[in-house]
Design a protein that fits this description.
single chain, mainly alpha
Length: 130
């Protein structure tokens, strides 16, 4: 079983610190997720914490979060959230996402069909990014 970092006893500051591993880009992405996810994905009952918990359960932290946000999704938050949601919905595999996020040479871009997943999530979740 994978080890997760968030156990429900942390403050939001603790969550951000644990997930970002001190990476400022990851911290920025996490703060944006927390703030904007309720508007982008109103069907996520965990609001801004939902995608963050998903990243934790997949073992994606620090620089890997920043790579997903910046390199793979071109700092397009709705698309990043769609990629995360696509794993939750069974439209994409966690292992490929984790592998792509671990690549700091931009090669992860070729592993994730961001536009396709974004459209599939929008099709599946009628309120997503409306």
């Amino acid at each position: 079983m994978k080890e997760v970092r968030i156990n429900g006893k942390e403050t939001m500051m603790d969550v951000m610190f644990k997930m970002s591993d001190g990476n400022p880009g990851a911290l920025t992405a996490l703060m944006e997720i927390f703030k904007e996810n309720p508007k982008i994905d109103p069907q996520d009952f965990l609001q801004g914490l939902g995608p963050i918990l998903s990243l934790d359960s997949m073992g994606i932290y620090g620089t890997d979060i920043y790579v997903l946000y910046s390199d793979i999704c071109n700092r397009d938050l709705p698309k990043m959230l769609a990629v995360i949601r696509s794993v939750q919905l069974g439209l994409f595999t966690e292992s490929i996402l984790k592998d792509a996020c671990s690549r700091q040479d931009y090669s992860g871009r070729t592993l994730i069909p961001v536009e396709e997943l974004y459209l599939k999530v929008k099709e599946r979740l009628e309120e997503f990014d409306r």
